[in-house]
Amino acid sequence: MSRLASGVVLVTAHEPALDPEGPRGDDVGMTATAFMSVSLDPPLVLISLREGSRMDDLLAEQPLWAVSILSESQRHIAGRFAMKGRVSDRLLFEDIPYVRGEASGALLVGGALATLECRTEQRVSAGDHTLVIGRVLTATVPSADGGPLTYFRGRYRQLG
């Protein structure tokens, strides 16, 4: 499967605070290459998450999430959120331009080729992964500059 080129996205979600009176919850991010459009009517997308990962656990409880389709100039963002074993994502978001999605509360990366906010419609167990199908609530094109960031043969690549 390393011979199949794929686009690179950052999946984000907001983990609500345990205490509604306490500090705001955490923002969580994850780099993914297994993302696709499923349907135009209704607008559905699919993301594949490693079973038991932090994002899989969060989206099992939190139905709202977002996707930023990364541009070729955002390789550093993809690498940062692909690191395994990190404790907190708070520092990883620190120097990345973003806005908070109005529909999902999740972070949307500035300069992304496109951003989507989604609500989970269905979760399907598939081997060691969970396929999460989400209904697209909002879609924006914040940047038309540059080409897509792709992943091929175990490395991030640019088209052309």
Structure description:
The longest helix has 8 residues, at 54-61. The chain has a single domain (6-12, 25-152), classed as Roll (Pnp Oxidase, Chain A), CATH 2.30.110. It contains 3 helices and 12 strands. The chain is mostly beta strands and 160 residues long. Strands 3-2-6-9-10-5-4 form a 7-stranded antiparallel sheet. It has a 3-stranded antiparallel sheet with strand order 1-11-12, with no helix packed on it. Strands 7-8 form a two-stranded antiparallel ribbon. The mean pLDDT is 92. The protein has helices at residues 54-61, 75-81, 90-93, and strands spanning 6-7, 9-15, 26-32, 35-40, 43-50, 64-69, 98-100, 107-109, 114-126, 129-140, 149-152, 155-158.
